[in-house]
Amino acid sequence: MNALAAWGPRQADIHRLELYVEPWNEGSWRTAERNGFVREELLRSWQEARGQRKDMYMYSRLRES
């Protein structure tokens, strides 16, 4: 994740990276936060997985000015 988070914003046409993490997956959202991603919101019933709707945290990392 760190390599992608560092590479993406250096590309001319990438201004924002987003990722989506299930709220119960603490390891993933802590990793995202350590790599400069900011939690923006909880997307309720955002994704279907195995016939059930799942909530997801949405994170973003913006290009530094």
Mind explaining what this structure looks like?
This protein is of the alpha+beta class. It has 2 helices and 3 strands. It has helices at 2-7, 26-34; strands at 16-21, 38-49, 52-62. The longest helix has 9 residues, at 26-34. It is elongated and about 40 Å long. The two termini are 21 Å apart.
Order of helices and strands: HEHEE
Share in helix: 10-25%
Main sheet: which strands, in order across? 1-3-2
Q: Kindly estimate the percentage of residues that lie in beta strands according to DSSP.
A: 35-45%
Distance between the termini: 21 Å
Tell me about the largest β-sheet.
3 strands, antiparallel
Number of strands: 3
Nearest-integer average pLDDT: 90
Evaluate the radius of gyration: 13 Å
Which segments are poorly predicted (pLDDT under 50) over 5 or more consecutive residues?
Answer: none
What characteristic shape results from the CA principal axes? elongated
Give the helix tally.
Answer: 2
Class from secondary-structure proportions = alpha+beta
